[in-house]
TrEMBL record:
Name assigned to this protein: Recombination endonuclease VII
Superkingdom classification of source: Bacteria
Keyword field: Endonuclease, Hydrolase, Nuclease
One Pfam family it belongs to: Endonuclease_7
Amino acid sequence: MRHMSDLPTESDKICPQCQRTLPLTEFHRNSRRVDGRAYYCKACATARSEASRRKRGIAPARRPATPVGQGLKWCPDCEQIKPLGDFPSTTRKASGRHSYCKPCHNARGKETAQRLYGGNREYHLRRRYGIGQREFDELLAEQGGVCAVCGVPDPEHVDHDHRTGRVRGILCFNCNGGLGQFRDSPTRLARAITYLRGTTWQRVLIHPGVFQMCSPTRGRPPSRHS
């Protein structure tokens, strides 16, 4: 049975692993959580991280043999002291920098994507659109293996509704970018079609072998140099 003194206050938090009531400062910052702090206390988080590293066959993290100076940071993967600029920036840590330098950070990302999703492509599709390569291939097959807009074969870009997040189809680079530039607006696209049809310059035969460029609507005449 807990005493009243053991109950957490607004400045305390219970670690679900060690069951200790600790000050919030004993928990790493995490902007994704409601209380702005990590789920486990620092000691338990470190222990869990080390256990995960051992399970994956990664050597335990070491500490720098020499003190880290101002404007520098220690990378536990490559075990080098590097300038802060060599570490990716983040708002999730009080230091404003990730724990690992950019090369090690990228290598860890690739390893995670490969381990959990079988590769970067699958990771990107799952994280961004909520589908995998299998669903991508099935949708492309339903389209006949071509871009759903222009018919170019082997499109590679997933088109989705930016409002709902739902996937609409597979498009080529140009069509996918074009819809984005028009902000997915049918009204803007319809106006663009009207504009193109109404301002298309046409060649009109005025004498045998002599043509003049004319527009069916009002507008500036073509340049003599064109």
